[in-house]
Amino acid sequence: MMKLPSFNNPLFRRQAAGCLLALLVYCAALLLPTPEGLGLAGKKALALMISAIIIWVSDALPLAMSCTLFLFLQGVLGTAPMDDALRNFAIPPVFFCFAMFCIVVAFQNSGLTRRIVLWTSMKSKGRPGRLLFLLMMMSGALSTILADVPVVAMMFPVALFLLEQNGCVPGKGSFGKAVMLGLPLACLIGGVGTPAGSGTNILTMNMLSSTAGVQISFFQWSAIGLPMALLLIPVAWWAVMKIYPPELTELAGMDELCADYECLGPLGRQEKLYIVLLAVNLTLWCTTGLHGLSLPAAAVLGSMLFALPGVSLISWEQDRHKIGWDILFLVGSANSLGVSLWQSGAATWIADTFLSGMSSLPLVAVIALVSLFTILIHLVIPVNTPIVGVILPPVAAIASAMGINPALLALPLGFSVSAAVLLPLDSVSLVTYQAGY
């Protein structure tokens, strides 16, 4: 006989509270008078988006199932035609994210992960500050083309080994704090360097196209994102070192790491194959204007190279569970709900009601306010993708009212979504936070 969940279980209480709160919020929104300038469809779309965020933040339902639920609720509740809701779900960024997951899996299978981590640690020559700088720069560089979570998870074991070898106790001492804070910081900053660094980036590009008709290429994003990441990672390292100066002058355990690196020998066949195929992918992404393929199409076609016979850096039977299917559903569902906000007029109403005063401010002030608001709302909604779906449509409306290119506000928004590191709420930060340092 199946055992019913206990009300004493904190997880069950949180999930039940999330479901109840989401339902109450939606019903309350329908019962309240419709504000001037916001139609019934817009009110429903806004209430549905808020309810979805509550469900996602509380983990009240399995993520992929809740994303599917809110996708179809748009048609059932009349916030958007069902065909439009489905069309706005099956968007290019979903397939781009799938391609990025495939490239990450191939990277893990190639054997390059251990080689890169050991080489980075070895080059520190036992100096704590130098080690942290190299780990952060390497993490940031990898995060520009790979997902943030796998990168920080790759660096974490070696960092933990060095901390344990040097007697760093969780909760005590500065060096452990510096390392465990610096790694996710570098990954999050590096993740904004190119569209490939995060699914949030490509979703920002897609929503900007669907709401404002503005196209941004891989190269155009990278021309802004890469210099910014290269500048901010050393700044972040300097800040971490100032706040948590290492209490160690020399690191123990380096001999073991050097010996492990020597045992790896020269680059293997799979490692060389991965480097060549990754270079092919980067070329495809940066030359979309020449070959005519869209960025998602180029990414999907390029990712298939890793599974070709004779390459076999991806085995579907062994690796399919490593694909972040939940994230793919979340990207599609957040985009569908966000476009519904725009098409129903809810986004314009939000901009007119709450953000109308911003249109009279100087552009620099507007960019600063949009960035600050995005970072603060991330503390309430610790899920990047829905934030883009909620904020970008009103921001695009503000840009239209100001008569400026919406990309001037959308890009800072996309960058700022990943910059919310005030609290360890993001999955990237939680990888190292759980170590207790």
TrEMBL record:
The keyword Ribonucleoprotein does not apply. GO terms for cellular component: plasma membrane. This is Anion permease. Its main location: membrane. Keywords: Membrane, Transmembrane, Transmembrane helix. It is found in: Membrane. The chain crosses the membrane at residues 45-77, 89-111, 131-163, 175-198, 218-240, 297-316, 328-351, 363-383, 395-423. It is a multi-pass membrane protein. It comes from the Bacteria. GO terms for molecular function: transmembrane transporter activity.
